[in-house]
Design brief:
This protein has twelve helices and no strands. The protein is mainly alpha-helical.
Length: 286
């Protein structure tokens, strides 16, 4: 009788499925999790960039519009003041082009430097670091959103300047290339200044100094500047956008030089945005 009971117990044990053993169950669960992790989609640059761009655009729409009016009125006021000094010719071309690009510098350089400086000091970079988005998408999305605010003010300033100085409006369509290229170069510079500055106050000062440089070196005619000032002007990213726009006010624009200035502006934009992306990675891991 005892032998038959032991045989039944052994028989019961032998028919237990192997899948419910604890070790194998945990191994199967881990395998499923690994498979799910491997099948998870990676965050791509373009969708992430669009998402950051829309978020930044909706967030800054209300706060930045008054500042855009300030930038536009500032540029228009500078042209009105320069009208009493400059009559026309190449100097008028430089004043109008420099004042139009100054709107881009005010928003894309000055405000973006302040934004990233405050974002770094307040710990906002930690929020972006937890999101599955590439660092380049954060920098490009924010830069694109801030540069978008400059379009109306730049167009209004250029049209007003042409009417004020009697310049032709025929080739103002070149602003479609000047605004994004100059905006990218200045936005990358502004983001790098804000991310590399150790304190937000210093980022604000650097952004304002950069905008002042764009004002003095971009609006004032280059022919009246000393040699070392002209060299500093060539180092400013917005200079090539100013030169490209100013060349189109002539009666017979040299489009080869216009395209050359735009190409230099594009190259500087790529470099400055790359530096800003590196600065973002550096600031995010600290």
């Amino acid at each position: 009788m005892g032998d038959s009971r032991s045989a039944e117990e052994q028989l019961d044990v032998s028919v237990v499925p192997a899948e419910i053993l604890p070790g194998q169950a945990l191994a199967a669960e881990g395998r499923v999790e690994r498979e799910a992790a491997e099948l998870g989609p990676r965050a791509r640059l373009w969708p992430s960039l669009c998402a950051v761009y829309r978020a930044q655009l909706s967030r800054a729409r209300v706060a930045r519009i008054p500042l855009l009016f300030v930038a536009t009125f500032q540029s228009i006021g500078i042209m009105v003041l320069m009208r009493g000094v400059v009559d026309g010719g190449a100097e008028a071309h430089a004043v109008v082009a420099g004042s139009a690009v100054l709107v881009v510098a005010f928003v894309a350089l000055n405000l973006l430097a302040q934004y990233f400086g405050q974002l770094r000091s307040s710990g906002g970079l930690d929020h972006y670091a937890t999101l599955p988005v590439p660092p380049a998408a954060v920098v490009l999305g924010a830069a694109g959103a801030y540069a978008s605010f400059t379009v109306p003010g730049t167009v209004v300033t250029a049209v007003f300047g042409c009417v004020l100085f009697g310049l032709p409006l025929t080739h103002l369509w070149v602003l479609a290339a000047v605004i994004p290229l100059a905006g990218a170069a200045l936005a990358g510079l502004g983001a790098a200044l804000g991310l590399l500055a150790p304190r937000p106050e210093l980022a604000t000062v650097l952004g304002q100094l950069g905008m002042s440089a764009a004002l003095l070196l971009g609006v004032l005619p280059a022919g009246r500047m000393p040699g070392f000032i002209q060299f500093a002007r060539d180092l400013l990213p917005s200079t090539y956008g100013v030169e490209a726009l100013a060349r189109t006010f002539g009666s017979n624009p040299d489009w080869a030089f216009v395209l050359g200035d735009l190409a230099v502006c594009a190259g500087v934009g790529v470099v400055s945005l790359a530096v800003a992306t590196w600065a973002y990675r550096r600031a995010a891991v600290r």
